[in-house]
What we know:
Elements: H1 11-14, E1 18-26, E2 33-39, E3 61-62, H2 65-75, E4 80-87, H3 94-108, E5 113-117, H4 122-125, H5 130-138, E6 141-144, E7 165-168, H6 169-175
Parallel strand pairs: 2-4, 4-5, 5-6
Antiparallel strand pairs: 1-2, 1-3, 6-7
Amino acid sequence: MKFPKPGEWTSEQYSKGKIASYKPYNFVDGEGVRCSLYVSGCLFACEGCYNVKAQNFNTGILYTEELEEQIIQDIGASYCQGLTLLGGEPFLNTQVCLSLVHKLRSVYGQSKDIWSWTGYTWEELQLETPDKKALLQELDILVDGRFDLTKRDLTLQFRGSSNQRIIDVQKSLQDGRVVLWDGLRDS
């Protein structure tokens, strides 16, 4: 598991603009029915990562305007609650993720929510580059922190290890402190 210094890893430096996969209408990547975009590339290299293939920045296909339009159209389904960004590391693929979330907000406003998983902690993101902060500002829910195999717990809701948190981003930004998601229901 790696621990970057603030600003050490940048999207411009590492991202190839690729996605590992896109999964419309799933039930596992957050609350409700969701469209999930798995971006390519992650430097955290957490032991026991469930998606090792997506750690490679060259995995998958290029993100295109056509795919973006398809995702926006899919999210429009009345039963779809929102978008999930994961991977790979969304915060090392900000050009892809920001394009999509800006388009989603322009079409649906706040009627569809946006979740993201990240290996960064909330505190680390506060010290990061402007693009990472811009992506954070657009999110509703952030599952933060590196997966820690020594803290693995399969009973946790939407996360794999007990160090990870499910954060209500907008309430946290408003309060200036971490506010956990009020939908948290661990077994």
